């Protein structure tokens, strides 16, 4: 039965000097789903995210990828398994061109990344694939632009292209639409929908309209624990979720008007 | 040409930049070959040794983003090993002595690197400083280094057993060749598949991790390369001056190489060369003038002015100017 879940956590817990940021979280992400992790500020979403991607070691609990434990692995090792994360603040290599950004991800598979005696011309045959990937996220005309000079929304798209270069089976996106204007949000939502085909996506997201448009399944975190889980309809009706997410006032108002 | 591969503007730019760079290298090599006709060769050799040392340091600081405060240890280890070898085994040719010194620095660099690389920023600098101080005290105490007096009377010998290096001009061309090789290694490392990953790590380390790169291993390679080249500089210097002294192991030397690199331009290939040239010239000129006792103060002042007003160093500022005005 475990096989239908691509990623699973059992009793995942993270304590920081007595403060429990993540408390006994059991998360199950189904293969092929777009799964969202939502919750109010300080709910522990980003901590869960960092635990899953091994940027933080868990205090207790287990993480399983396709039924196999990956709890003790290093961050760069799980990337090799096909779990690739993005970051809350756009994570690009600022003083490299868009093409070079993607190429750095592509070149790992060549196995020449320690070859300090080889010319970088040996990477040029990757350019074609890099351009394809840039095309896929609508950035072909930015190929030669230094990333630092690109607009914010485009940087996030570039991040997706770089992630795709690794052909991930599971993409972990940390607030992909954070700090974006409405137009960019629409573009990124479309992009995620497109690249999620044949993949699994787990995303932390604040923007509920994005979640409602994209996600198959939603887990709501509050104060480090799972509050509710289900599709958008059922989760959004859950009174506990309403209270945690919008504050008790909003829930009360809602009830009063109903 | 009906090639299927299209050249993007950036690739064309890169190619023309490569061409310009190669022309520049050619001009500089010719200048380097002609230089001893106009300038005292021993002075030039000193500049070249320190330039190589600074270039090695810059590989670490400028391209891997790691500030080592213990590079004197590698310079001195290279120097002492070469000195001891050449002094104790008269049959040894200088190039073998230099190779042994360099290897010793590589071994020490691997040891330092494994211990220090996990730390970041100031902690990394402190660990390297502490380790370098241990090396310094080892050289003070060890019976074979001559302690405070230093190791004297290292023979220059005959290169490959053929060419006498006691002639300053022969010696100069050998040092120049060593420098060019060292510089070429750095130039290539920066523009290699490895250099690309190193750049990515410097730009955004967590992202490089999330792409599956074991960043510590990449940093360690940079550290060992840098240590080895610093050792090469120290070894060569010992052959030139026929002595190895504690000055090279002192933490002042670790500071001086930072000064040279920042002054010339960190993260630029030629910056450290210019910085080393400037610092060595100033030291030599001032030592002969009435201001002899003020060398450190004057260098310190220059450093402060440099850091406050032109942060990218001499070469860095020139590059900026060229970019602004000719594009």
TrEMBL record, chain A:
Record keywords: ATP-binding, Nucleotide-binding, Transport
Pfam families tied to this protein: ABC_tran, BCA_ABC_TP_C
Gene3D superfamilies: P-loop containing nucleotide triphosphate hydrolases
GO molecular function: ATP binding; ATP hydrolysis activity
InterPro entries associated with the record: AAA+_ATPase (IPR003593), ABC_AA/LPS_Transport (IPR051120), ABC_transporter-like_ATP-bd (IPR003439), BCA_ABC_TP_C (IPR032823), P-loop_NTPase (IPR027417)
Positions of the ABC transporter domain: 7-248
GO cellular component, one term: plasma membrane
The protein's name in its UniProt record: Branched-chain amino acid transport system ATP-binding protein
Protein source organism: Halomonas fontilapidosi
UniProtKB/TrEMBL annotation, chain B:
A Pfam short name: BPD_transp_2
Membrane topology qualifier: Multi-pass membrane protein
Spans traversing the lipid bilayer: 22-39, 45-66, 73-92, 98-117, 124-144, 171-190, 257-282, 294-314
Signal sequence region: none
Cell location: Cell inner membrane
GO molecular function (one): branched-chain amino acid transmembrane transporter activity
InterPro entries in alphabetical order: ABC_transp_permease, LivM-like
GO cellular component: plasma membrane
Keyword tags: Cell membrane, Membrane, Transmembrane, Transmembrane helix
Source organism superkingdom: Bacteria
Protein name, UniProt field: Branched-chain amino acid transport system permease protein
